[in-house]
Structures are given as structure tokens and as C-alpha cells.
Design goal:
Layout (H helix, E strand, L loop, with lengths): L4 H12 L101 H25 L13 H4 L22 H4 L2
Length: 187
């Protein structure tokens, strides 16, 4: 996690603001779109309990869905999410939806349906591709570029034409490496 979002938070609270920390809401920060219930073996200490904190009065046994302690991150409206981590959904560039695993297919692009929510993953993919389209369009306003393909027909409601099929990602192209991205967003 050092180079990923988790590393940014760890660095901030270890180096920039040492001695200060806060437990972030896992459904809103670094949202993984994953199941919120511990579902390991029955003999595990936290089996059936919520993965979320804070734990009510330090009582882990009360930290259960039956007690209303779990918010299902998989169903949270994406407008309430601040940052996303694509672990359970897979990366948008994979052009793959997390369908239930096919036991004959050993690739890890398939995920158990209970782990994640295909629709929510798709909406996060769409948001990613909306940002990508915005970047490409803003760059095109500044310099002449060859626009990337947007004619893919793999779940266009989620991948917005940037995927021709599962695994068939259309790369972003035409933006020179020395292009100053600050010029389009002002930071």
C-alpha cells in the first residue's frame, strides 16, 4: 500500500500529522465494494461480525448486522464515496466485470458474487471513464491530438466505449509525455 492510497494516509498520519489519527469510514474512504461481514470459518473470533468500526463500547459481539451495525458498502450510492480502491471490482483497464467465479477458469478476474456488487463496480468504472473522457477532452482543447477510440461495445453503460470486449481496453493515446496536465486543471 505504500505507493497506493493506503500509503498516502499512512504517510500523512505518521509524518505530516503524527500523534493525530482518525478512523475513516470504510464505505466512503478507500471504498472496496466488498462484503462487510467476516465470513471466515465459524471458529474465528469475528465470524459474522461487521468489518466496520467503531465497535460499540468495545463490544465486538454487538458489532453484527442484526444489531444494525453494518452499512453495506456494496450498495452505498457512489455520490457518497470519496475515494475508490478497485481490489474487489478489478481495475477499469481490465475491462472485466466481477461475475461469479467459474471453477474451471483459474484467472482471478472472476470474483464471488457475494464478495462484491457488479452494478456498483460498473458505476465506479463509469465514473473512472467519465474522468478519463474529461481529461482527453480538456487536452484536445489545448493541443491537437488524435482522440482515443470510444466505439467499444463491451458494457458501454459502464465502460463508455473504451472496451471492445473483456480484456480489450483501448489505451489512452495521443497525449505527449511532456504535456503539462496542470494547464487543464489549474493545480
Amino acid at each position: 500500500g505504500a505507493m497506493a492510497y493506503q500509503g498516502v494516509l499512512a504517510y500523512f498520519y505518521d509524518q505530516v500529522r503524527p500523534g493525530r489519527s482518525v478512523e475513516l469510514d470504510v464505505c466512503r474512504w478507500n471504498q472496496v465494494v466488498a462484503d462487510v461481514i467476516w465470513r471466515g470459518p465459524n471458529n474465528m473470533n469475528h465470524h459474522g461480525q461487521c468489518r466496520q468500526y467503531p465497535v460499540e463500547d468495545g463490544n465486538f459481539t454487538a458489532n453484527t448486522p442484526e444489531n444494525g451495525r453494518c452499512e453495506d458498502c456494496r450498495a452505498l450510492p457512489i455520490s457518497e464515496v470519496k475515494t475508490v480502491h478497485y481490489t474487489a471490482c478489478k481495475k477499469p483497464l481490465d475491462c472485466s466485470l466481477p461475475y461469479p467465479r467459474n471453477p474451471r477458469d483459474k484467472r482471478q478476474v472472476y470474483r464471488l458474487q457475494e464478495l462484491t456488487n457488479v452494478t456498483t463496480c460498473g458505476l465506479f468504472f463509469r465514473k473512472y471513464f467519465e474522468y478519463r473522457r474529461d481529461v482527453e477532452d480538456r487536452v484536445a482543447e489545448k493541443i491537437e491530438i488524435v482522440p482515443s477510440r470510444r466505439d467499444g461495445n463491451y458494457f458501454p453503460e459502464y465502460f463508455m466505449g473504451y472496451c471492445q470486449n473483456a480484456g480489450g481496453y483501448y489505451s489512452i493515446g495521443g497525449i505527449p509525455e511532456d504535456f503539462d496536465m496542470k494547464s487543464i486543471y489549474g493545480f
